[in-house]
Amino acid sequence: MNTRRNFLKTAGLATAAIGLGLPQLAVASKKVDPLFKISLAEWSLNRQLFSGKMDHLDFAKLTKKAGIDAVEYVNQFFKDKATDMAYLKEMKTRADGEGIRSVLIMCDGEGMLGAATAEERAKTVDNHKKWVEAAKF
């Protein structure tokens, strides 16, 4: 007998079946890109890096293990390596080997772009140039 209760029960079961079954079939049949892609900021691991429990060069490998495919470096962890092409090449080789995209280098300790004097601002810009070149590489 067609009653309101039977109709609601049938409609509810049909909705649940569609909701549970069809999306998985659609996803299984084609690869769907995620809505958002994320990167891991190296600063997230600053305690391990500063303590020596982790090496900066292992950051890409750890990021891949976490299921993330992009990194954001922090210059503090390779401060004296901005112009060391062999070191930068090793960073790039390791990231590429893990399928990791290097997104940016956050720069600390190079001056303030909003400094009071033009001289201080110009020095800050000059200090950042090596990091721009490192990022370009």
- How many helices in DSSP terms? 5
Main sheet record = 3 strands, parallel
Any idea of the CATH topology of the largest domain? TIM Barrel
- Average pLDDT level: 87
Number of domains: 2
Overall geometry comes to: elongated
C-alpha end-to-end distance: 74 Å
Class from helix and strand fractions: mainly alpha
CATH level-two architecture of the largest domain: Alpha-Beta Barrel
Would you list the SSEs in sequence order as H and E? HEHHEHEH
**Which spans of ≥5 residues are poorly predicted at pLDDT below 50?**
none
Characterise this structure:
It is a single chain. With 137 residues, this protein is mostly helical. The chain folds into two domains: 1-32; 40-136, Divalent-metal-dependent TIM barrel enzymes (TIM Barrel), CATH 3.20.20.150. Helices cover 53% and strands 9% of the residues. The protein has a three-stranded parallel beta sheet. Helix 3 runs parallel beside helix 4 (85-98). The longest helix is centred in the first third of the chain and has 26 residues, at 4-29. It is elongated and about 85 Å long. The relative contact order is 0.11.
